[in-house]
């Protein structure tokens, strides 16, 4: 499989997650059940892959304690918030808002003092990224959904990913646990954390279409995408994996328009372009400063636990 085809398959599987969430909601599943089932199925896929690779789950209490924090901010909470948000916001727009994760990561880094003072390029990117969000929701227009609970939930999910990335980089990555096993353990923990959400949202008639959608979401758009992303990081480096991240909003908007008939307005497309341009600027580095960390990441397993944040999800604009 060529690099371009692999990237296309990964982007399609990962970016389709927003579509499967929307279909699951439309066919009777509640946000709590969607969150729980995708955690269960994603964990099952990763456990099988870890077992096949001869990797064992962590055994020490300290690691499991850290996994509770990571699983909450990286899986249980954002998975739930994306499902809640898509009750009132189109799946394509949800995919675009997910791309704001690097912007939140930059703000968190500035607040914690882990980011150097911003150069003009990155500061411009930060401003552009959030300007794109405003353009999408147009708070100046009548009936805007900017302050709706759905929009705030989606932005909260993206910010939660950013918190998780910062925590995982400090407390989980590079500590000796095999990446597939660590990711499987994290989704197992997220399954337990998401169980209380099953009682919320009441009951509804669930169709077989809804069941199929949430199965695809859990198996392919959660579990399998992590494995494919990990392989891409290992074989082609983090730059290729980051490139996939920029394709996810395009996939989510396209699928939402083609499959669900979601309106593809000029304003939303322009907003998406502005968001992605802003994210690209915030991730800019000088050639020397970016080659060194990328070379280090390509030779160690620390990139894989970061990737689970999305699909766990990658520190790039990742999946739901």
Task: Summarize this entry quickly.
By secondary structure, the chain is mainly alpha-helical. It is built from 14 helices and no strands.
Which helices and strands occur, and which strands form pairs?
Layout lengths: L2 H13 L1 H10 L4 H22 L8 H25 L5 H8 L2 H12 L7 H18 L11 H23 L7 H16 L13 H29 L1 H23 L5 H17 L4 H12 L4 H5 L13
Helix pairs in contact: 1-10, 1-11, 2-5, 2-10, 2-11, 3-4, 3-9, 3-10, 4-8, 4-9, 5-11, 6-8, 7-12, 10-11
Q: What can you see in these coordinates?
A:
The chain has helices at 3-15, 17-26, 31-52, 61-85, 91-98, 101-112, 120-137, 149-171, 179-194, 208-236, 238-260, 266-282, 287-298, 303-307. Residues 286-317 have low confidence and may be disordered. The protein is mostly helical. The protein starts with a helix and ends in a 13-residue tail after the last helix. 73% of the residues lie in helices and 0% in strands. The protein is built from 14 helices and no strands. The radius of gyration is 18 Å and the shape is globular.
């Amino acid at each position: 499989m060529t690099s371009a085809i692999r990237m296309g398959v990964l982007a399609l599987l990962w970016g389709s997650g927003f579509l499967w969430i929307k279909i699951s909601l439309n066919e009777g599943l509640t946000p709590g059940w969607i969150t729980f089932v995708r955690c269960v199925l994603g964990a099952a896929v990763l456990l099988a892959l870890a077992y096949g690779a001869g990797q064992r789950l962590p055994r020490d209490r300290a690691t499991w304690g850290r996994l509770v924090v990571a699983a909450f901010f990286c899986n249980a909470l954002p998975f739930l918030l994306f499902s809640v948000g898509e009750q009132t916001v189109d799946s394509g727009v949800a995919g675009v808002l997910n791309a704001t994760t690097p912007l939140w990561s930059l703000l968190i880094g500035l607040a914690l003092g882990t980011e150097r003072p911003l150069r003009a390029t990155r500061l411009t990117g930060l401003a552009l990224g959030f300007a794109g969000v405003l353009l999408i929701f147009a708070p100046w227009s009548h009936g805007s959904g900017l302050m709706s609970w759905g929009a705030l939930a989606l932005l909260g999910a993206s910010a939660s990913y950013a918190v998780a990335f910062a925590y995982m980089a400090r407390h989980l990555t590079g500590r000796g646990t095999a990446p597939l096993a660590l990711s499987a353990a994290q989704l197992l923990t997220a399954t337990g954390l998401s169980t209380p959400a099953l009682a919320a949202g009441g009951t509804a008639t669930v169709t077989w279409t809804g069941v199929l959608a949430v199965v695809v979401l859990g198996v392919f758009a959660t579990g399998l995408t992590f494995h494919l992303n990990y392989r891409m990081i290992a074989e082609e480096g983090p730059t290729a994996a980051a490139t996939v991240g920029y394709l996810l909003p395009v996939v989510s908007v396209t699928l939402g328009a083609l499959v669900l008939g979601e309106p593809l307005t000029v304003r939303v497309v322009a907003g998406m372009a502005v968001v992605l341009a802003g994210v690209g600027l915030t991730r800019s580095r000088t050639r020397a400063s970016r080659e060194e960390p990328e070379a280090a990441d390509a030779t160690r397993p620390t990139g894989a636990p970061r990737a689970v944040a999305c699909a766990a999800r990658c520190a790039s604009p990742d999946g739901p």
